[in-house]
């Protein structure tokens, strides 16, 4: 059975799960238009994850996926954290804000949180995908027993081998053009493959269905990846501007104004691609100290953005976007799906 039949969808189009930007409304609109809706739940706890899934199930009877982060939890290094706080201190002072004295683990890994697994087992979405690595063997086996399709982001061959060995059903092939966080299992082992090269190479070595992700903005782009052997395409940036997303006004507008993106690991503690802004330039100065690790670095970034945006300064936001953001179109989710389907044909 091909992937679309297995998922129960009619179009080879996935909206990317996007923590902080996904909403039940966006997921449902994509699923109702024949694509595969998604909820990015990497920043959610068990209760908020459950509420988002239940809400989506109220808005659509079509299938959708949910997504979690599987980073290897890193211990808090108080000395490194302090150095990073000191480096950011002038910016907090610029806004007369209190400088934090410690950083928090704002995102728990799915690996160490079986409450999230239980939510998935209880609510039974069609599929669950993972970013930054694999869940445990026990978690995969529980999902399989419940009949839930498992998917994982891979950025290189070695990660795809690990996913295959673990019994994962679908490979989300994320090229270096992708907006948001690189899904690399180990953030310091990034092969930097383009979406095109990654899809070609995965197709040569694996029989698993492949979903192309990274820099895909139009139906013509989707068709190219299908011709290269992908079963579907996953688009993030193209959907961020939709009225159904949770993006704030500043983010929405900047997507149309600023076409240059850059990868940095100094905003969150892991490499991620976003619109190049003043803050990117500051955090990437060659003489910076090393960041405080993931997700502690992100905690400081979010606190600084909150302080700055309260005073109408939006330049400290992490505006994740892929390298083809220049091709973005202003359409709501239903219109964008219709446009993509029309271009694809
Ligand atoms: C705002 C934003 C947030 C993202 N958050 C997640 C996430 O929570 N989980 C995930 O697996 N991928 C996430 N991604 C990456 C996407 O899954 C996908 O790889 C990427 O959007 C594809 O590239 P594109 O943005 O050029 O379409 C995010 C991407 C964006 C743009």
Automatic annotation (TrEMBL):
<dbReference type="GO" id="GO:0000166">
    <property type="term" value="F:nucleotide binding"/>
</dbReference>
<dbReference type="GO" id="GO:0018580">
    <property type="term" value="F:nitronate monooxygenase activity"/>
</dbReference>
<dbReference type="Pfam" id="PF03060">
    <property type="entry name" value="NMO"/>
</dbReference>
<dbReference type="GO" id="GO:0009636">
    <property type="term" value="P:response to toxic substance"/>
</dbReference>
<protein>
    <recommendedName>
        <fullName>Nitronate monooxygenase</fullName>
    </recommendedName>
</protein>
<comment type="similarity">
    <text>Belongs to the nitronate monooxygenase family. NMO class I subfamily.</text>
</comment>
<keyword id="KW-0216">Detoxification</keyword>
<keyword id="KW-0547">Nucleotide-binding</keyword>
<dbReference type="InterPro" id="IPR013785">
    <property type="entry name" value="Aldolase_TIM"/>
</dbReference>
<keyword id="KW-0560">Oxidoreductase</keyword>
<dbReference type="InterPro" id="IPR004136">
    <property type="entry name" value="NMO"/>
</dbReference>
<keyword id="KW-0285">Flavoprotein</keyword>
<keyword id="KW-0503">Monooxygenase</keyword>
<keyword id="KW-0288">FMN</keyword>
